[in-house]
Amino acid sequence: MTGTRELHLIVGAGPIGSALAARLSDEGLSVRVVTRSGRAVEAPGVESIAANAADAQALAELSQGAAAIYNCANPGSYAVWQREWPPLAAALLSAAERSGAVLVTMSNLYGYGPVDGPITHRTPLRPSDHKGELRARMWQDALEAHRAGRVRATEARASDYIGPSLPVGSGLIAMYAESVLSGRTANVFADPDQPHTWTAIEDVAATLAGIGRDERAWGSAWIVPSNPPQSPRRVLQDLARLAGADEPRLRRIPRWVLRAGGTVSPLLREVLGVLYQFDAPFVADGAETRRVFGIEATPWETILDETAAAWSARAKR
Fold first, then answer.
1. InterPro entries this protein is in (predicted)?
2. What is the enclosing helix (H) or strand (E) of 32?
3. Which of the residues 80, 121, 279, 284 has an alpha carbon 20 to 30 A from that of 296?
4. 259 and 278 share a domain?
């Protein structure tokens, strides 16, 4: 399945794309990363290409000879999703079809909408807002192409990311932690005491690398293995303890205040659409992924140690 000359193409060089590139390179594979800027990925032997991945012809040419194409793209703020995701997803699907590469998509849990109980390999998609509908539609398009024999497609789905490489402001827990580790009160948008699944960036990369090269994964979506859920308050307490910071001070913003702010802030309006994930227990169960592929979540204490050190240093700059 693997080889020193086997090409793997990654679209996107954020935390996930960069971690995946490093992992595949370490395994002796040829790795090509495509971004608009062409910025280099800090991993030996990784080729960085500047290109518009939404250009179907350009992406198809870059994908020739690839064993797998990994969609690790992030079009940016929620406000541009409806405009930028459809052509990008279509170009990725076209490139996979024309090159014969496996299409491996990194996705989230928005497509499930509010759930009653843990999200498993069998949980149906029931999106409750346009972001979830978009991600669900992208998967359905890929799945239909897979079932028609035009492509081989699979998808990894992760809960909110945690890890040292996660940028400030990329998710609520990173935003809260920036305040806590700086000694400030963190304004939280939902109940800080509800259990919630957090997915390590390295575990996402491990899952993508695994399902891209294992035909048992193709034609299905897989939940990334994660540690048992922890409330936002507990995560912030542990990060503060390890960083030598004071006990977190949290102030919950009333929902009516958030709704009022959403009338003038597009970003806040979009965040309101997914706060159901923090109003009740939100648990992603990757047991099936562990059973089939042997992928284990990184030990929680390791994640906390590395994240606390990186985020604390960043908060003090």
1. Epimerase_deHydtase, NAD(P)-bd_dom_sf
2. strand 30-35
3. 279
4. yes
3-class SS of residue 227 = coil
DSSP secondary structure letter of residue 155: E
Statement: residue 289 has pLDDT above 70 = yes
- Measured in residues, the chain has a length of 317
Digit-coded pLDDT (tens) for 131-173: 999 999 999 999 999 999 999 999 999 999 999 999 876 889 9
Same domain flag for 115 and 141: yes
In this structure, the answer to whether residues 142 and 78 fall within a common structural domain is yes
- Whether 127 is covered by a domain: the verdict is yes
- Please check whether residue 278 is in contact with residue 190, taking contact to mean a CB–CB distance below 8 angstroms: yes
218 and 75, same domain (yes or no): yes
Domain extent, residue 111, equals 7-161+199-226
The CATH number linked to 49 is 3.40.50.720
Are residues 132 and 13 both part of a single domain?
Answer: yes
**Distances, alpha carbon 59 to alpha carbons 18, 92, 99, 160, 233, in Å:** 19, 7, 10, 29, 43
Question: 47 and 80: one domain?
Answer: yes
Strand partners, 12: none
pLDDT at 275: 95
Mean confidence (pLDDT) of the chain: 94
For 18-74, write each residue's pLDDT tens digit: 999 999 999 999 999 999 888 888 888 899 999 999 999 999 999 999 999 999 998
Burial 85-122 (b: 16+ CB within 10 A, else e): beebbebbbbbbbbbebbbbbbbbbbbbbebeebbebe
What 3-state DSSP class applies to 34?
A: strand
Query: In angstroms, rounded to a whole number, what is the distance separating the alpha carbons of residues 80 and 8?
Result: 28
Q: What is the pLDDT of residue 5?
A: 63
Cβ count within 10 A of residue 141: 15
pTM confidence score: 0.94
Q: Do 184 and 131 fall within a single domain?
A: no
For position 42, what pLDDT does the model report?
80
DSSP labels, 257-279: HHHHHHTT-HHHHHHHTTTHHHH
